[in-house]
Amino acid sequence: MCEQQRFLLTVAYDGANYSGWQRQANAFSIQQAMEEALARVFGQSIRTVASSRTDAGVHALGQRVAFNVATPIPLQKIQMVINNFLPNDIAVTEVKIVPPMFNPRLDAREKIYHYVIYNYPYPNPFTRDTSLFYPRRLDFKKMARAAGYFVGWHDFEAFRSQGTDYRSTVREIFACGLEKDTQRWAAINKSCDKPCGDETGAAYNGIITFYIRGNGFLYNMVRIMAGTLIAVGRGKIAPTDIPGIIASKDRSKAGETAPPQGLTLVEVKY
Description:
The chain is an alpha+beta fold. It has helices at 30-42, 75-84, 140-147, 182-188, 221-233, 242-248; strands at residues 5-13, 49-50, 59-69, 90-98, 110-119, 132-133, 152-155, 170-180, 206-214, 263-269. The two termini are 31 Å apart. Helix 3 crosses helix 5. It has 2 domains: 5-98, 2-Layer Sandwich (Alpha-Beta Plaits); 110-269, Pseudouridine synthase I, catalytic domain, C-terminal subdomain (Alpha-Beta Plaits, 2-Layer Sandwich). Strands 1, 2, 3, 4, 5, 6, 7, 8, 9 and 10 form a 10-stranded mixed beta sheet that branches. The protein is globular.
């Protein structure tokens, strides 16, 4: 008889058609799709624990999902078998065995997210579910400068939405910054190898990616940071205002919460 083991999956998904990771009574979630697939694979009800409860419309490249089961299926075949029962917008990219008490959320030491902004005057149907379409010009240099102020140990009370209680709102950001993805821009817009200008001759940035790496994140923290950087790019907030906003612990002083479709959980490290 097989012994029960604890498995850890790395899961990628397009969150556009789901209510988020966590099971909900009145909507279809990624957790529900995953647990239904696991039940079909292993012939029993499976409960999963994930590293992050991504919201509706948010994506993942490296969500981590743990569960316990006793199975005769060889480890090297489990990934293929699970993927056979998953919808085509969810995929298991890695499977391994972990210690019985391993918790993918509590044991995480580092999480990496990115938020993508499609900064161009006209929308693109191929990026609508994976980026925020923002048709106004943004000052990329000011946004990049502002992002640097997030690095370090800070109380990020001003950068979280209400709805979740925390023992502490202090988090450490190891690194963050912005990049212009010129290669991807050129692939999407083959008529030009750099972002085109508007009628005034001012250039748009094309695809802007905000990367952030930290030991943990509060509810909607990355999306509020992204919204704040957009406000900086529009000239509504100065880059040097960021330390004061952090110190204020006042949510009203930060920018709007950016929409979910631009956000992706890239990786979780242990």
